[in-house]
Design brief:
By secondary structure, the chain is α+β, with helices and mostly antiparallel strands. It has 3 domains: about 80 residues, no CATH class; about 100 residues, no CATH class; about 50 residues, no CATH class. It has 7 helices and 10 strands. The strands form 3 sheets. A 6-stranded mixed β-sheet has the order 9-3-6-7-8-10.
Length: about 260
Amino acid sequence: MSKQTRLRIGTAGAVLLFVSMTAWGQEASGPAYTTSPQAAGETEGLGQPAQVPIGALVERAGGSLLRAEMAGQPQGGGLSPSSVSYYNVPEPKPQLLKKHDLVTIIIRENSQFASQGTTDLKHSNDLDAIIDAYVTLNWQKGLNLASHAPTNPIEMKTSGQRDFKGDAQVDRTDTYSGQITAEVIDVKPNGTLVLQATEDIKTDEEQQHVTLLGTCRVQDITADNSVLSTQLFDLSLNKQHKGAVKDTTRRGFFTRLLDVINPF
């Protein structure tokens, strides 16, 4: 292999590397998705005159590609590096997200709750009363009132005491990780997306039902069409489980009834 051939191969490799790095940089610079048809390029060409093919422009320019590019530019618009460079890679346009499209939600929810309470209630009362005189109503000699003073005064004594002491402590940690595909049910005027997802999984006697509802920005959706659940606004995540495991750990009817009435 001659030196000139090796030089050409090295130059071609450098050009390919430059083109690849340029394409990667341009792809990572912009958002992957959008809710605007203009940003996605779906309205290009509407109401615009048909463009002349580049081959015809080169022929008119006498074989000069530069003159053909300059002739194809709109009036008043100058040349740009992207229009005259042989190695330019056009920036990819973001994909358009519309109503009823699907987005994958990566669920990573961690919650921890701890509460402790102590109640100590003591209540006592004493009543000591003596009746040493009282009034009676006499019907024999007409209606009159008579006062009496008993020899042994009537005495009343009562006493009561009530003690209540309660101690409660709750310490709970929940972790839920998974993926679920949601549907775009609404696109807000500002471009935010309302996502809704449902999932039913049944294995033998165990059944799991998951519902999710939330709002996210289109900028938070990554290139692989996914978004984290921690980036959803007004998130509503409901997970219900039915089966033998829940039936075993569930309290009985009378136990729950006593907890509601709470007679003691």
